[in-house]
């Protein structure tokens, strides 16, 4: 399944993320509560490299030592305004935050489905040098309804494709799940997610 038009690099995409995340009904119901719990369950207490951090929706709930990376300078600016550690992809080589082996986890949440077909492993590999041996890897992607909800989505990542991507970057799959509801909810619930957790092989 593939589609995708539009860009995640410009101001309009940042504005869209901000508008969707700030919807009043989402604030009243605290719809992010179960997702925060799941994020902390997998990554709590770890120094995380959040690749494709966007406006910091996940980054704000990770350990304060964590760092977000995004190619959208507007989104990174909002992260910094909120007091989060974030850099653009252009700053990757020059940032003092990026020390080889510093991070003991990598998060790619709602990133892979935006990339060109076949590009996921190549996009992730440059970040591996910043991970400690045995680092935890967490990939999160939308299921069917969520995939169709955004014109910038390009490739549909299910459990099989997520597992393949994990292996392509030298990781081993530890767990795969559907969250917050079972897989059957994917066609009708926009926010049902595939969650793949892995471990980076010790490269020493």
From TrEMBL:
Its EC number is 2.1.-.-. Pfam families: Methyltransf_23. SUPFAM superfamilies: S-adenosyl-L-methionine-dependent methyltransferases. GO terms for molecular function: methyltransferase activity. InterPro entries: SAM-dependent_MTases_sf. Keywords: Methyltransferase, Transferase. The keyword Ubl conjugation does not apply. This is Class I SAM-dependent methyltransferase. It comes from Actinomycetospora aeridis.
